[in-house]
Write a structure and sequence with these properties.
single chain; about 120 residues; mainly alpha; Arc Repressor Mutant, subunit A; 3-stranded antiparallel sheet; 4 helices; globular
Length: about 120
């Protein structure tokens, strides 16, 4: 009986994990829709674009655990179905190095608690 309980617990944990990921993806989708529907001013679309990229990069680094800039760009292109400017990602990672990310060698990692911010 204990093995059945363990299997059920593992299934419940997996469901919780998938539900959390779904919430994160819905958040990213909402931000992307806002970008698409942003006003005609360049400033508002730039702000939304930067918010979207920042959120997406945090998602990528969080999912990958430890990744190079190229791996982050690849993850973004695969998961958001769009071309990503590598220089924009590199700039964003470097600009937020102390706030969200840390770097060891050529790999970036997400700082603890940064995902919720």
């Amino acid at each position: 009986m204990d093995s059945y309980k363990e299997v059920l617990r593992n299934i419940d944990n997996r469901i919780d994990s998938v539900q959390k990921e779904l919430v994160e993806l819905r958040g990213a989708r909402t931000v992307l829709l806002r970008l698409e529907n942003a006003g005609t001013t360049k400033r508002s679309s730039t702000v939304y674009r930067n918010m979207t990229l920042s959120y997406a990069v945090r998602q990528a680094v969080g999912k990958l655990g430890r990744a190079s800039t190229a791996q982050v760009v690849g993850w973004l292109e695969n998961n958001f179905d769009s071309d990503v400017n590598r220089n924009s990602v590199r700039t964003l990672l470097s600009a937020n190095k102390n706030k969200f990310f840390s770097k060891k060698g050529s790999n970036w990692t997400l700082k603890p608690g940064a995902k919720e911010n």
